[in-house]
Write a structure and sequence with these properties.
172 residues; alpha+beta; four-stranded antiparallel sheet; two-stranded antiparallel sheet; 8 strands; globular
Length: 172
């Protein structure tokens, strides 16, 4: 177990988060993956992902990224209902259904954390929620400040929303 993420100085976190997001949006990744973003406040960004079913059907998903722990830890991340920005509920069109989990991750709509609270977890070592659990990842999968950025979080979520993992919205 690696320990729980601790909140960092919000002024520093917001500056580093903004710089890393700008770097991503200056490159080809957003257009390649069909990503758009909306700034919510200095510590939060709403990213729209385009999930692609095996038959080519495109389903939109929205992930709220938070920089409360960034970049000492990865960003917080949760699939949300875009109208309310509240965590997507299991069985809703805003919660993806995977036909299989990648070797490096999974989706949990409700997960019990070490502190006794429960919440959604995009289960991979590039989200803050992952470190609030009893996971013991291999050393080469652990978030490394200065090496990893929010780009790793975004690309892994995008990979989950593509073949061979993604199937459909959970409400379908």
């Amino acid at each position: 177990m690696l320990g729980n993420p601790a909140k960092v100085d919000p002024t520093i976190a917001s500056a580093v988060f903004a710089e890393h997001l700008e770097r991503i949006w200056r490159g080809p990744l957003p257009s390649e993956l069909g990503l758009t973003r909306t700034k919510i406040d200095d510590l939060h960004e709403l990213v729209e992902f385009q999930a692609i079913r095996a038959d080519g059907t495109v389903d939109p998903y929205f992930v709220l990224l938070g920089a409360e722990y960034y970049d000492q830890w990865p960003p917080a991340a949760a699939f949300v209902d875009p109208a309310t920005r509240k965590p997507a509920e299991a069985g809703s069109k805003w919660w993806p259904h995977l036909k299989q989990n990648p070797q490096w991750g999974a989706l949990h709509n409700s997960y019990r954390f070490q502190d006794g609270s429960s919440g959604q977890m995009i289960c991979m070592s590039f989200t803050a929620e992952y470190y609030r659990t009893q996971h013991n990842p291999p050393q080469d999968a652990v978030w490394q400040q200065g090496r990893h950025t929010v780009a790793a979080t975004i690309t892994r979520i995008a990979a989950m929303l593509r073949d061979p993992y993604y199937e459909r919205p959970s409400s379908s």
